[in-house]
UniProtKB/TrEMBL annotation:
SMART domains registered for this protein in UniProt: PTB
Residue span of region Disordered: 176-202
Gene: Anks1a
Cross-referenced InterPro entries: ANKS1/Caskin, PH-like_dom_sf, PTB/PI_dom
A GO molecular function held by the record: ephrin receptor binding
Gene3D superfamilies membership: Pleckstrin-homology domain (PH domain)/Phosphotyrosine-binding domain (PTB) (2.30.29.30)
Native organism: Leucopsar rothschildi
Biological process annotations from GO: ephrin receptor signaling pathway
Keyword DNA damage: no
Start and end residues of each PID domain: 35-166
UniProt GO cellular component terms: cytosol
Alphabetical UniProt keywords: ANK repeat, Repeat
Protein name: ANS1A protein
Amino acid sequence: ESKLTLRPPSLAAPYAPVQNWQHQPEKLIFESCGYEANYLGSMLIKDLRGTESTQDACAKMRKSTEHMKKIPTIILSITYKGVKFIDASNKNVIAEHEIRNISCAAQDPEDLCTFAYITKDLQTSHHYCHVFSTVDVNLTYEIILTLGQAFEVAYQLALQAQRAKPLGAGAGEMIETKSSKPVPKPRAGMRKSAVLDQDSQSHASVSWVVDPKQDSKRTLSTKYETTIF
């Protein structure tokens, strides 16, 4: 099988502030990228406004947890299929979010160690924002960049599968991820599938927005809009 070729961040997303991805594609396909982070919690997004909603949620969750003595430590395990929350103490999978249901990943402009992304619950169509913090700004930056690379890998694999199918074959490739226990608040466990529509003008659009006022701090705000599935 031919080696998967990824577009560089600057081509995959015109406003990407970096030239190279962090990982080899095979790392996100056959293994996973794990990052330790504190999970501040999640909140319902009633009015989705892109990364503005993400940053609002970051500010609210940061404020509501600033006096908490113990904040859960989790491992974010990222692959081309999505993100798993893994309990850092016992290694149990807490929840999974499929890549197609993740959007609007961004750093908190007021605290660059805090970041979040938004997920869509397929059963209710509600959106939830999951907020995390790390001990290092560069680690937060790398996590968001790795999420962007996971989208690009998923996109290229979908194109590869599309090209390999004979004319008149089924509409798409199903990608299933194991259903898991939901995050206690809110209910976020989902059984998910991704379908590539051969008849559509499929493409992945990932826009990276860098706030020029924060450029010296290397703020990264990434809004993912994928239409490949």
